[in-house]
Amino acid sequence: MALEIGQIRHVGLFTPSLKEHARFYCDVWGLERLIETPDAVYLRGSSPEQFILSLHTANTRGLHHIAYALADDRAVRHAASVLTASGVRIIEDPHVMDEPGGGVGFRFLDPDGRCIELSSGVSRHLKSHGKSVEPQSICHIVNNTPDLQRITTFYTSVLGFRVSDWSGQQMVFLRSDSKHHNIAFNAAPHASVNHIAYLVSGVDEVMRGLSNLRKHGYEPAWGPGRHGPGNNIFCYFKDPFGYVAEYTSDIDYITDESKHEPKVWPRGPESMDRWGVSAPPSPELREAMAGEPDPGWLQKSKP
């Protein structure tokens, strides 16, 4: 039985400025603080997921983990068995999760040393926090990789993701459910976080988010505009602690798998912004998207 990985649940990031970083995402970006511990802060959006972003104390920045949904406990155990048989390094066997919402899950490392969580049975919440901008969920995460072919093969052949599109030979867009992509990889000299995109309700909320960020002194680093791959509306910002965050909406969904053929989009302004209204990313934004070399979860999680 093949793995049937669902939507992206949440992303965890390491940060050297836990309280200040959490304050930005609560007071400015539009998330709501759920739980705070001495070493982590969990932040929810307006979707039923218990949280969509967690921040974890570390001396440097990097990815803590990415969490995806599975259907039930049986699917969790099956996935762990399949990945073990495939030689994937399991770092936490299936167990009751010690994070908001509970559930049962396990964690493993991908070929770049990133920690991936698969879980089921996580409790839901129905509260909307009533802010002017309410990110619903993590739409997608883009990671940099030193070996684009290796990481693409792993996610498609081992995890069962599908290729939606390519941006030249530079980026691959992957999906585990019908959304055009919930993860993408960008060829780079080292592994690192490129950016995280937060899904909002539509173009009006993208623009309200832009207005709200400006009121707090943050100008957009790229956008607004509309991408080619995924067809989503975008507006990128540099957060105060070195990560790139994106408001996005109106992404395509692939409802008929049998009819979708991945397209290789040419690298250029026309596919980066189909509207043609946004200036190219600035050198400062490109530097932030490159990120600092991330040695992987095992190294960064050591005390």
Short description:
The chain has 303 residues and is α/β, with parallel strands linked by helices. Helices cover 21% and strands 34% of the residues. The protein has a nine-stranded mixed sheet with strand order 14-15-16-13-9-12-11-10-17.
| Oligomer state of the chains in this structure | single chain
For the secondary structure, the number of strands is 17
Main sheet strand line-up: 14-15-16-13-9-12-11-10-17
CATH class of the largest domain: Alpha Beta
| CATH fold category name of the largest domain | 2,3-Dihydroxybiphenyl 1,2-Dioxygenase, domain 1
Q: Which band does the percent of strand residues land in? A: 25-35%
What CATH architecture of the largest domain would you give? Roll
Parts with pLDDT < 50 across at least 5 consecutive residues? none
Nearest-integer average pLDDT = 95
Number of helices: 7
